[in-house]
Every structure is written in C-alpha cells, then in structure tokens.
Amino acid sequence: MKDSFKKITGLISVPWKMYKKKAPLAAFITGRIFTMFVLLYLLGFSLFALMELAPGDIVDQMMTQQLMSGMESSKASAGGSQVTANENFSEKQMENLRKEFGLDKPFYVQYAKWLNRVLFHHDLGISLVSRAPVSFLIASRIWNSVLLNLISLVFITVFSFLLGVYFSSKAGTKIDVAVTFFALFFHAFPSILLLILIQLFASVTRLFPVTAYPDFPFESSPAAFSLSYMHHVFLPLLASFFGGAGGTLRMIRSTMLDQLGLPYIFALRARGINERRVYLNHAFRNTLNPYITGSANLLASLFSGSLLLEIIFAYPGIGRLTYEAVLQQDINLVLATSMFSSALVLVGMIISDILLAFVDPRIRYGKD
Predict the structure, then answer these.
(1) Per-residue buried b or exposed e for 9-46, using 16+ beta carbons within 10 Å of the residue's own CB
(2) Quick one: average pLDDT of 321-329?
(3) What is the pLDDT of residues 115-170, one digit of tens each?
(4) Residue 368: other Cβ atoms inside 10 A
(5) Which residues touch 234 (CB under 8 Å, ≥6 apart)?
(6) Which residues of 288-321 are buried (b: 16+ CB within 10 A; e: fewer)?
(7) 3 state SS of 133
(8) Of 221 and 361, which is predicted with more confidence?
(9) Percentage of residues in the chain with pLDDT exceeding 70?
C-alpha cells in the first residue's frame, strides 16, 4: 500500500517540479487555484455539518409558522376551535417534506448530491423557503454587495495612502500624534457599535436616511437612483471607512517611516535627489508590497463587516441574504451564498499575489 502511494505521488510530483521550474509564477498561480478549490470543498462540508448540528430543520420551522398562523386565525374568529400542529402537519406529511428536500439523508450524502448538481449540472438548487432558484436570489443581491465593498476599498486605499504618506513626513508633530491616536481608536472601536451610533445620528438629525438603499428601482430613473443611492449609502460608507482606514493608514505610515530610515534613502538624498522624488518614486513604491499583501485581508474584513452593515441599515446585499437564510435554515441558500462570498475573497487573495509579483520583481515563486 505504501509503495503504491509513493508511486502515485512520484508520478504527480515529477511533472509538477518540471512545470514549476519552467514557469514558477504560473505554477504558483495554479497551486493557489487548486488550494482555493480544496478550501471551498472543506468549507462546504463544514457548513453542511454545522447545519446538521443546529436544532430542528426547515420543516420544523414551517410547522411552527403554520401553527402560529393557525392560532392567530382561531383567535380572530369568534368561537373558532383551537388549531393544533397535528391538523396542519401530520407526521407523514413532515416525513414527505423532509424526503422532498433531501433532509432525510446524512449531511455528507446531501453535500455529495449538492456538489454533483453544481459541478455537472451547473444548478445551485432551489431555496427551500421561497422556492425561487438560488442563482436568481444571489444574482439579485451580489452586485449590491460587490459595489458597496469596492467603493469602500477604493476610498480606504486612496485616503489611507494620501494621509499615510503625508503624515510620515510629519512624524513626531502634534497633528501626527493626533491622527495616529484617532486611527488607532477607530481601528479598535467595535464596528457594530459604530454602525448603531451612526444610524442613531441619522435618525436624530434626519440629514440622512436610516436605510442604505433607495426605495425605487434603478430602471425607473437611473440618474435619480444614482443620486439617491449616494445619499443613502454615505453613512454606511463612512462607518466602513472609519473601521478600515485606521489600520491601513497606520500600516502605510509605519512602512514609509521604515523605508525613509534605510541606507538607500540617505544615498538618494546625498546625491541631491528632490525630496518629492525620494518620497513618491522610491519610498512610496516599496510601501505597495505590504499593502498588496494585506489588501486581500482588507477585502475579507470588508465582506465580513458588510454583514452587520447590511443588517443594521437594511441594505439588500449578499450578507443580509445569508443571515436570513441561516435563520430559516435554508441549507441550499446558506451554502451557495457562503461559498460565493468565500470564492470572491479567495480570488482577491490570488489577484493580490499576482499583483505583488508584478510590482516587486525580486519575488521568485520558484524558490523553495
């Protein structure tokens, strides 16, 4: 058994080493893509296992909702008889529903069937609650979350670099100490509390809406929708900026200060190079490496933070859709939304690695 396993690994490792030697960057990207699919597989398996451990299932929730609606209708009707769960759902009906939804099988069998349907039939299934296609529900929400997080990422990146580079030249001054303090403060401030405080500010002042999305569709009036969207999303973006810019600004400032203390900076200044060129063409360029490496983590934190933002500000994004699906134990929708968000984050990490290789030519992924 061990000999056969060694032969199989040898057959795989030899061509892989040759491929890695000839094209180190392509081999690195291929390895990261393979790792991404392995992580997504393990994530899906874990999600199915966790949903299995949760008490009850969607059939129990349907029974409870039917019971509650029956009790309300019986109270509304004078002299109406009490409606019980057995009158709405018999044990046989519940078993048939579980069999229809596939909940009567072990979670690993359910996961295997889901993978087979997704990989070979390109079908994400149907929501167990709304009975709508999962792909339709994701498509109707995902672009809202992507747009929100991309705007946050652009604002955090631009202002963090501008402020970080500027205050690195003012190191030790009173304004530098004040900005560093506030950056650390907002970086450590609980995001959920910040979102609630900002929503209370909107509610009290009435300067901004308490929701983060217009109440009319884009197709009705694109120009009016765009203006209304910017008005609605300003406070959520402000909260996202305060939460994400603090750590990024401090990282860029500290990296710039480290670069400015290196010998090559002193050599450039001794040659009479303009101070602006020293900052922007040399020290600034070397601060891109740690930022690109950490940008994937920043994107992941933005997507995870947008869950709270979408819930508190009633923003119709993928995070809120996932939250509602978890509460309703809609396993098809939970798995699809979670896998989709995780895939976006992992793709962002691969893109950051590729950009890092192009920005810094010293990197050689072929070295062990």
Answers:
(1) eeeeeeeeeeebeeebbebbbeebeeebeeebeebbee
(2) 80
(3) 888 888 777 878 777 778 888 888 888 888 888 888 888 888 888 888 888 888 78
(4) 3
(5) 208
(6) bbebbeebbebbbbbbebbbbbbbbbebebbbbb
(7) strand
(8) 221
(9) 76
CA-closest candidate to residue 314, choices 129, 144, 131, 127: 144
How many C-beta atoms lie closer than 10 Å to residue 182's C-beta? 13
Which distant-in-sequence residues (6+ apart) come within 8 Å of 207 by Cβ?
none
Segment 357-366, tens digit of pLDDT: 666 656 555 4
For position 305, what pLDDT does the model report? 64
Q: Which residues pair with 126 in a beta bridge?
A: 133
What is the predicted pLDDT for the residue at 270? Answer: 85
Percent of the chain exceeding pLDDT 90 equals 0
The sign of the CA dihedral 338, 344, 346, 347 is positive
Residue 1: per-residue pLDDT? 53
Q: What per-residue confidence (pLDDT) applies to 46?
A: 85
The secondary structure of residue 80, as a DSSP letter, is: P
Q: Which two tokens stand for residue 121?
A: 């039939």
The single residue listed with the structure tokens 């929501």 is: 127
In single-letter form, the type of residue at position 117 comes to R
Q: Is 274 helix (H, G, I), strand (E, B) or coil?
A: coil
Choose among 277, 322, 330, 282: nearest CA to 101.
330
Does residue 318 contact residue 341 with C-beta atoms inside 8 Å?
yes
Nearest to 191 by CA among 236, 251, 141: 236
What value does the mean pLDDT take over residues 230-243?
84
* pLDDT value of residue 110: 81
For tokens 């120009």, the residue is 223
Q: Dig out the tokens for 74 from the structure.
A: 């019986």
CB 210 within 8 A of CB 313: yes
- State both tokens at 66: 């039917």
DSSP secondary structure, 195-264, as one string: HHHHHHHHHHH-SS-SSSS-SS-TTT-HHHHHHHHHHHHHHHHHHHHHHHHHHHHHHHHHHHHHHHTSHH
Spatial neighbors of 348 by CB under 8 A, at least 6 apart, are 295, 296, 299, 300
Query: Identity (one letter) of the amino acid at 146?
Result: V
How many whole angstroms separate alpha carbon 33 and alpha carbon 11?
21
